[in-house]
Amino acid sequence: MSISERSSTPYQERPESIERYARRVGMEEIEANDFNLNISRYVSTAEQGGAIDLSATHRELVEIEKQIRDSTAKHNSFLKELGLSPLPAPDK
Prior knowledge:
Elements (H helix, E strand, L loop, with lengths): L2 H11 L3 E2 L3 E2 L3 H6 L21 H28 L11
Antiparallel strand pairs: 1-2
């Protein structure tokens, strides 16, 4: 659907709704929204995200935390050789 078709269809054909683009609402709903005609009050353009695998995400975060600890320890050994103060240890 072209941009001009997408813009003219709701006006010309007046469908009940076009997902994530337009929706016909009654005066009762407009009044309930204090006559606010902001489109986002009536049409959500957000796309639903996919499911998140919490176990996999947790495993990734645990691995990242381990990498941070290892990298900090390695960096601190270099700082010690240079006679500089170490970075603070990451929270455990």
